[in-house]
Specification:
By secondary structure, the chain is of the alpha/beta class. The protein folds into two domains: 70 residues, no CATH class; 172 residues, HAD superfamily/HAD-like (Rossmann fold, 3-Layer(aba) Sandwich), CATH 3.40.50.1000. The protein is 43% helix and 16% strand. It contains nine helices and nine strands. The strands form three sheets. It has a five-stranded parallel beta sheet, sandwiched between helices. Strands 1-2 form a two-stranded antiparallel sheet. Helix 8 links the parallel strand 6 and strand 7. The longest helix is centred in the N-terminal third of the chain and has 20 residues. Bound molecules: 2-acetamido-2-deoxy-beta-D-glucopyranose. 2-acetamido-2-deoxy-beta-D-glucopyranose binds next to helix 6. The site of 2-acetamido-2-deoxy-beta-D-glucopyranose has 4 residues, from helix 6. Pfam families: Acid_phosphat_B. GO terms for molecular function: acid phosphatase activity. Belongs to the APS1/VSP family.
Length: 258
C-alpha cells in the first residue's frame, strides 16, 4: 500500500515537472531552443513526440497543452498509419526470415490490446487528444461499451501469426472486470483464436504495468513457451525481464503507461 502511494506521488511530481517545463509563446508560435535555434510550434511538438517514442520523455500524465492539436492531427492522420504499418512490416519480415518455428504448440507471440489491436483514438479525441488528465472511470465506461475499432494492419498481422501456427497471447493492462466486454469487443471486430488473455487482477494492481507484464512472460517461459516477439504500443509492454526474442513498438503519443 505504502508503495502505491509513493508511486502515485512520483507520477504526480513527474507530471508537474513536465507541464511546467513547457515554455511556449502561443501568441507568435515561435520560440528558441536552449542553444538559440529558432523553431516553430510544429518543430517543438514533433520533437516532443519523437522523444516520447524514444522513451526519453517518460511518465507524462498529459500531452502538453500547446501540442494537443499537433498530436491529434498526427494520431488521426496518414503519417501515424504509415509509421504503424512500417512497424507491422518489420514484424512480418522478422517472422519470414529469422524465426525458426518448432510448431510444437510452444511458439508464442504477445500482443497488447489497446492501441495495438483495438484503437482508443476515438476516446482520446473526445478528451483533447491526451491533453486532459486520464479519468479511469470514464475510460473504463467507454471500454465496457465494447465499441473500439480494430486496427486493420494489426489484424492482418494477427491473422498471419495465427496461420503460421504460433500461439497468440494477449497481455493487457486492462483490469479483470473488463474481461467480458474485452472479449466481446475483440470477437466483434475480428480477433479470435488466441491462446490466453491476461488482464490485470487485484493482485497486480500494486505492481507497475511493466512488472505485471514481465511477470506474465516469466510464467509463459516457465511453461515452456518460446516468446518470439511482442507487439505493443507502450515501453512498459516490452521492457523488463524476461523479455521476448524481439520486440516491436507501435507509435502512441496520446498517453504513457508505466
Ligand atoms: C470521470 O468520469 C466519470 C464517468 O464518466 C464521471 O462521472 C466523473 O465526473 C469524471 N470525473 C472527473 C474528475 O471528471
Amino acid at each position: 500500500m505504502a508503495r502505491c502511494v509513493l508511486l502515485l506521488a512520483t507520477m504526480f511530481l513527474a507530471g508537474v515537472l513536465t507541464t511546467t517545463a513547457a515554455d511556449w509563446n502561443i501568441m507568435n508560435q515561435r520560440t528558441r531552443t536552449k542553444s538559440g535555434l529558432q523553431i516553430t510550434l510544429k518543430n517543438y511538438c514533433e520533437s516532443w513526440r519523437m522523444n516520447v517514442e524514444l522513451n526519453n520523455i517518460r511518465d507524462f500524465t498529459v500531452v502538453p497543452a500547446e501540442c494537443t492539436s499537433y498530436i491529434g492531427k498526427y494520431m488521426s492522420g496518414t503519417q501515424f498509419k504509415v509509421d504503424s504499418e512500417a512497424t507491422i512490416d518489420e514484424c512480418t519480415l522478422y517472422l519470414n526470415t529469422l524465426v525458426d518455428l518448432k510448431n510444437d504448440g510452444k511458439d508464442a507471440w504477445i500482443f497488447d490490446i489497446d492501441d495495438t489491436l483495438l484503437s482508443t483514438v476515438a476516446y482520446y479525441k473526445k478528451h483533447d487528444y491526451g491533453g486532459e488528465t486520464l479519468n479511469v472511470t470514464g475510460l473504463e465506461e467507454w471500454m465496457t461499451k465494447g465499441k473500439a475499432t480494430a486496427i486493420d494492419y494489426s489484424l492482418n498481422l494477427y491473422n498471419y501469426i495465427k496461420k503460421r501456427g504460433i500461439q497468440i497471447i494477449l497481455v493487457s493492462s486492462r483490469r479483470e472486470h473488463l474481461r467480458a466486454a474485452t472479449i466481446d469487443n475483440l470477437l466483434d471486430v475480428g480477433f479470435y483464436g488466441w491462446k490466453s488473455l491476461y488482464l490485470r487482477g487485484v493482485d497486480d494492481e500494486c505492481k507497475t504495468v511493466q512488472e505485471y507484464k514481465a511477470g506474465v512472460r516469466s510464467e509463459l517461459i516457465n511453461n515452456g513457451y518460446r516468446i518470439w516477439g511482442i507487439l505493443g504500443d507502450q515501453w512498459s509492454s516490452i521492457r523488463g525481464v524476461p523479455t521476448a526474442r524481439r520486440t516491436f513498438k507501435l507509435p502512441n503519443s496520446l498517453y504513457y503507461v508505466a
